[in-house]
Amino acid sequence: MAFLSWRDQYRVGVTHIDQEHRYLFGLINEFHDKHRGGADDKALEQVLNRLVQYSEAHFRHEEETMRASEYPLHADHCALHEALYMTLFRLSEELAANSLRIDMDTHRFLRAWLVEHILKHDLAFSDFLAQRAKATPAVDDKAPAESTEE
Fold it and tell me: How far, CA to CA in Å, does 122 sit from each of 12, 14, 66?
């Protein structure tokens, strides 16, 4: 059984964001599996570094999508991303310096930052997009143009 399982309730409804979230789930599961399997710190460090790098790219993509959508909480969301990124980066640095002991608290943190961030903050963006879609009437390009001839 996976440490962290993807559920439909995590879907934001923006394809590339959802795909990236699923990949982040996979990286956290890989980290967990390697640790539980007795991998050395170097192997764990490599996975954590990939998680740091991918998170940075994901946050940038998500922020670009929010900016393009004129999401009113964009700046607040960027600040959350920065704090999360710095925490992940610090964990990675501490592991590289042999000053981090990987334990279940580390695993719980990784699970919590991703799941809670999606459920509390990314789904708020999803709600914003849904509300905006409801407020914007769809254009029916199949409707016949009005004739000016009589």
Answer: 7, 10, 10
pLDDT for residue 142 is more than 80: no
DSSP class of residue 145 equals P
User: For residue 72, what are the CA distances in angstroms to 78, 84, 103, 129?
Assistant: 12, 20, 38, 11
Q: Which range has the worst mean pLDDT, 2-6, 20-24, 122-126, 133-137?
A: 133-137
Q: Domain-by-domain residue ranges, the chain?
A: 15-135
For 80-110, write each residue's pLDDT tens digit. Answer: 999 999 999 999 998 888 887 888 888 889 9
Residue 7 CA to residue 4 CA, distance in Å, equals: 10
The closest of 55, 32, 64, 34 to 113, measured between CA atoms, is 55
| Closest to 17 in 3D by CA, of 120, 134, 118, 119 | 118
Q: Tell me how many degrees the CA angle 130-134-136 measures, rounded to the nearest 5.
A: 115
The CATH architecture annotation of domain 15-135 reads Up-down Bundle (1.20)
Q: Tell me, what's the pLDDT at 140?
A: 53
For 121, the token pair is: 């903050």
